[in-house]
Amino acid sequence: MPLYEYYCDDCNGIFEAIRPMREASLAVPCPECDHEGERIMSSFTAFTFRDGYPRRIPDKGTFWHMGKEVKQRATRMKGWEHPELAKPKPTPRLTRGETRVTREKRIGARKEARYRDRWGIDKDGFPTVKTKTPEKPKRVLPAG
Ligand SMILES: [Zn+2]
After folding, report:
1. Cα(125)–Cα(84) distance, rounded to whole angstroms?
2. How far is CA 102 from CA 97, 116, 123, in A?
C-alpha cells in the first residue's frame, strides 16, 4: 500500500499514512489529536516546514524539505534544492589572484629552467656539466 501525506488543520502538522490507493483521498485521523487530516498533494511539500509552516508529525525537531528530512530550514536555496541535500561542492577553485600568482611562479620557474639548461648551470649558478680542463699534451722529448 502506498504512503500518502495528510495535513491536520488543528495541529498545523503533516503526517504520513499508509492507505489503500482507493482510500487515499479520504481523510485520515491525525495521530496527535485524532482530528481528520486531509490528504495533501505532493506540490505542498515543496517547502521546508516549521516555524509558521506545517510541522511534521511525529515532531522530531527536524524540518522537511521536498519530503526529505533536514536539520536546518533552508535559508538560501538554489531552486528547490536544500543545502543539506545538495551534492557536495567540487573542490574550491583558486581565486583569480591566487591563480595568477601560481601561474606566474610556474612560468618563472620554467623560464629559469630553460635559461639554466641553455647555460649549463644549476639553480645556484654553478655549471652542471663539468667543463673539462683540456689535458696538456705530453711533450715527448725527442730522443737524443
Ligand atoms: Zn492533529
Report:
1. 56
2. 9, 21, 19
DSSP 122: -
User: Tell me, what DSSP letter sits at residue 105?
Assistant: H
DSSP state of 13: E
Cα 50 to averaged position of ligand 1 atoms, centre (Å): 15
Strands of the sheet with 63-65, listed across from one edge: 48-49, 63-65, 68-70
- Residue-wise burial string across 83-102, b where 16 or more C-beta atoms lie within 10 A, e elsewhere: eeeeeeeeeeeeeeeeeeee
Q: Which residues of 2-31 are buried (b: 16+ CB within 10 A; e: fewer)?
A: eebbbbbeebebbbebebeeeebeeebebb
Question: What spacing in Å lies between the alpha carbon of 84 and ligand 1's midpoint?
Answer: 28
Arithmetic mean of pLDDT, 20-27: 91
Cα of 55 from ligand 1 centre, angstroms: 11
From the CA atom positions of the chain, what is the Rg in Å?
38
pLDDT per residue over 101-124, tens digit each?
888 888 888 888 888 888 787 777
C-alpha cell at 129: 656539466
